[in-house]
Amino acid sequence: MHAFFASGTRALRSVSIPAVLALAVSLPAPAAAIYNFTSFDGPGSNGGGTTVNGIDNNGAVVGFSSDNAAAPTLLTNFIRNPDGTFTALNIGSDPLAMANGINDAPAIVGSHSNGTAYVLVGGSLLPLSNVTPTTTSETAFGASDTGLIVGQFVDSATGTTPGFLLGGGGYTILIPVINALVTNAQGVNNHGVVTGFYSADGVHQHGFFYDSTTHAYTLAPDPVIANLVLTQFLGMNDLGVAAGYYQLPDGSQHGLLYDSNTHAYTFLDDPNAAHSGVSITQITGINNSGELTGFYVDAASGLQRGFVANPSIPTPEPGTFGSLALALVAALPFRRRFAARHATAR
């Protein structure tokens, strides 16, 4: 375990683009929280590393181990329990299925290797229906305790990849800006607020929020980082804090938190990630206790490993931005958190 400081700074609904609320960047000088990091490797054959995708309010995390000795790579999906033990997940006996999100039930959501999405509850595996008649593939990334599910699908009719919100008996198609080519809805909290990221040019990506009550989008400001390539929000808690990472031109990706109430960013990497050169950390989830989860590439071994990080007593932070820590390799927009070697701009 390592202590590390965070530096502050329904029936198918027709597609509509509600008024977008653009936030002004305000970066106060918050206290710097101290996080205690615990690294772990997932169960099973783990030569291709561990990918961790989400955390519930009890501290259980979900993800998969990768066996890169197999062709194709085989995945061992798991829940890491709060006591550090693992529960293996059998997702329809599909060795290439991915477990992407978890809620307190726990219900697990993700995708099969054939491009269909699922929810796994109490041993029962339930397929999700296609978002539209022209859906060619879809994946689920997050689920709230209230039964909302979010994800992404490929639409052959438009040639785009929108996000979706499933709840209230039907789908809502998510497109934060009218020219978005890719929208990835990654998380949804118990207030019905969705977070994720979008791209209008296929390269640069930006975080967003969608309020399912008001049907309004909020476009988050990108962090003020020189040569920024992309920003991804991958999960959020009920307090309105989103977790994710940003990417630089060399492929480095650095963990971040964004407080949607204060509009402040916090930058935080696993202390075992590289401190120079290409460095990889993604924060993929945050729960209501402020506990974080994600994965990083270990500087010593080069292996992708999972982590959980617990906040402890905050200390005063004199500056607006403290030291930056470092983060992960880009992944496909619709298949974000796969092992770093599979990454492109996700």
What does this structure look like?
The protein is an all-beta fold. It has a single domain (2-342), classed as Neuraminidase (6 Propeller). Helix content is 0%, strand content 44%. It contains no helices and 26 strands. The protein has strands spanning 2-5, 20-22, 34-40, 49-55, 61-67, 74-80, 86-88, 98-102, 107-111, 117-121, 124-127, 135-143, 149-155, 163-167, 170-174, 182-188, 193-199, 206-211, 216-219, 230-236, 241-247, 253-259, 264-267, 281-286, 292-297, 304-311. The strands form six sheets. Strands 1-3-26-25-24 form a five-stranded antiparallel β-sheet, with no helix packed on it. It has a five-stranded mixed β-sheet with strand order 2-19-18-17-16, with no helix packed on it. Strands 4-5-6-7 form a four-stranded antiparallel β-sheet, with no helix packed on it. A hairpin with a 5-residue loop joins strand 9 and strand 10. The radius of gyration is 18 Å and the shape is globular. The two termini are 29 Å apart. Residues 7-31 and 315-346 have low confidence and may be disordered.
Set down the secondary structure blueprint:
Layout: E1 2-5, E2 20-22, E3 34-40, E4 49-55, E5 61-67, E6 74-80, E7 86-88, E8 98-102, E9 107-111, E10 117-121, E11 124-127, E12 135-143, E13 149-155, E14 163-167, E15 170-174, E16 182-188, E17 193-199, E18 206-211, E19 216-219, E20 230-236, E21 241-247, E22 253-259, E23 264-267, E24 281-286, E25 292-297, E26 304-311
